[in-house]
Amino acid sequence: MNRTRMGLLGAAMISLVAVGCQNKMHDENLALHKQNQELQSQNDQLRGNQADPNQIAQLQGQIAERDAKINDLQNQLRQPAPAVPGQPAETSNDLAGIEVTRDVRAGTVTVNLPGDVLFPSGRAELKDTARVTLNKVVNAIQKDYPGKMIYVDGYADTDPVSKTKDKWKDNLDLSAARARSVATYLETKGIPSSRVVPRGMNTSNPKKSKDASRRVEIVVATRS
User: Fold this and answer.
1) In 3D, which of 78, 84, 65, 83 has the Cα closest to residue 22?
2) Each residue of 38-81: pLDDT tens digit?
3) 149 φ, ψ to 5°?
4) What pTM value is reported for the model?
5) Around Cβ 16, how many Cβ atoms within 10 Å?
């Protein structure tokens, strides 16, 4: 089994566990409600029969304890299921239509921007249309992650630089220049340079195709 299939299987298992936990809490909540109804019925009968006050007080204590558990379970059920590492994250309207993933273990949110969307082939100057996309990212970062560190990672495919080899020594050089270009744009939009770190990642972490491998990832360290 290759790494991709293992990763997908692991993500699916984590999702199933999260759903299973929610279902278990729901079932427990229903069971507690049923127990409370039975205890309340017993309490009403004891009151009607003028039973021992201590016995009534004991039943009332059990009812109160179960009420507290029910409230706790209901609060847990209202919480969203935990995010799965590497899976699409819930995003604000600012990032609608843009690929975003969250890794809760690493404490990161990653915005994936295809290289062809941002740059002309073999170049590191942003397209005019790319600025619209980057403005959405800037708005989301400033709204949802103020003060967090941001890493701008440039990636390339495995094809050697040919048409623009007069400008770039190799793919690492090109990926670093593209990362710097995006980082500089973020800074012009009000994100302090002290929070933005451009990184040339070369051909590391390739995607399923060469087109997908050419990209810039904006990684927000949500725990910083």
Assistant:
1) 78
2) 666 766 666 666 667 777 778 777 877 877 776 665 555 444 44
3) -75, 145
4) 0.60
5) 10
